[in-house]
């Protein structure tokens, strides 16, 4: 049985792209909502595609991920583009906020740890978001079961509607819920159920 997630191999391959090139679809479409000079934290940044995209637009972006290989690759990609981005390896369960951010991103990650861990993290992230700040959040839901090769690392698929409900009191600027097919290096194919929101913290 596979015990390491598929992305660890492609993170270690400088010629492979574990997920899609460029930013996630929501960030590509709605990055104009982010105010100039915003500070951005990318949680579970992987190869750093969102942080690198935003840093290239002049934002002060940084990110962490559990995968040391992913962080090493993000650092290498940022260096080739002459971008000064702080990336570091970090377990979400042990992360302590040292500052407040204007924008917090998390895509395809929060359903991986235990529910208590991800719920506590979301609460902390909301607390450490500046007034009028934004969250760009995407998670997998239990509309579909976890892919067979992902069961061991997927501890808490969200219920449909659970994510936006956790942002009661925030302004939901964008919401999408559905399914999609995905393919990764090595011929790994998945069918996921997904929910994403862009939410603004009200003052």
Describe this structure in words.
With 203 residues, this protein is of the alpha/beta class. 24% of the residues lie in helices and 30% in strands. The chain contains six helices and seven strands; from the N terminus they run ααβαβαββαβαββ. The chain has helices at residues 7-11, 25-30, 49-56, 68-80, 115-127, 162-165, and strands spanning 39-43, 60-65, 86-89, 101-107, 129-140, 171-184, 188-200. The chain has a seven-stranded mixed β-sheet with strand order 3-2-1-4-5-7-6. α4 (68-80) links the parallel β2 and β3. It is globular. The termini are far apart. The mean pLDDT is 89.
Ranges where pLDDT stays below 50 over 5 or more residues in a row are none
Helix content: 10-25%
Q: Structural class of the helices, strands and pairings?
A: alpha/beta
Shape: globular
Strand content: 25-35%
Question: Helical segment tally?
Answer: 6
Instruction: Please tell me the overall pLDDT.
Output: 89
Order of helices and strands: HHEHEHEEHEHEE
Q: Strand order within the widest sheet?
A: 3-2-1-4-5-7-6
Counted beta strands: 7
The N- to C-terminal Cα distance equals 49 Å
Computed Rg: 16 Å
| Sheet having the most strands | 7 strands, mixed
